[in-house]
Amino acid sequence: MTSLPAVAVLGLGAMGHAFAANLVKKGFTVRGWNRTRQRGEDLIAQGLTLCDSPEAAVADADVVITVLTDGDTTRSVLSACQAQLKQGAIVCQMGTIGTAATDALIDELANARPDVVFIDAPVSGSKAPAENAQIAILASGDRARAQAVEPVFEAISRRQQWLGEAGAGSRMKLVVNSYLIGLMQSVAESASLAQALGFSADELWSALEGGPLASAYAQGKLGMIARDDYTPQMQLSLALKDARLALDAAGDRPLPALENIANLWQQAADAGYGKEDLAAVFHFINRTTSGDK
Asked: Is pTM beyond 0.85 here?
């Protein structure tokens, strides 16, 4: 039987923590690192080796997963531990960091460590799907040289789509997230209109359920609105970052709806909603409409 690859997870936020937990549960040797060490301490008893530096985490790892906040952080962390990467290691960048940072990483690793295989593999899904290994992986890069990553992907996701050369995954991720952001804004505005016309969020979902307009995503967000509970599955501030990355990647191509949503969500973040789930934009819209401060 083929042995499982050793894995390092750099970044133990909502997604990285879920990846590490699923890998440990499924018998992988896993080392983790997070700038705030406390984020990974609960996994130690389950078998995670929690390291004090990314350099220590990547030593002897066959597969290195990065799930960090942004491109600058990802490039800085990987630059710091380039020399410690195992010969022929696979580096999987799985955060949403945009096209420019991804292209820079591809060039930097190719120049410094041509033996290392870079796989660009951001994911579609949020905290709960990640915890249940139900995310989709948008993978790109040299799959033939990255066979060791296949069991890792199987352990943390429900499906993988391979999209071609490294960088394609990050481009598709921006497309997917622009769709998600537009959908969330539509759900929030529709729920606000429903309330103005005398209907609850639950009644709105009942009107959608079973029809062609229903989706599990809309159901989940309308449920949050109905409960007035915006415990983050995906923070509004991170969704706003993704909207800005998509707009940057679009260049001169006009995306007026996304531009307007980004401006509105910036106002919501400035008003204190940034760390809540992006469904909290419903609350911000209602507060703004009612004139509450």
From this structure: yes
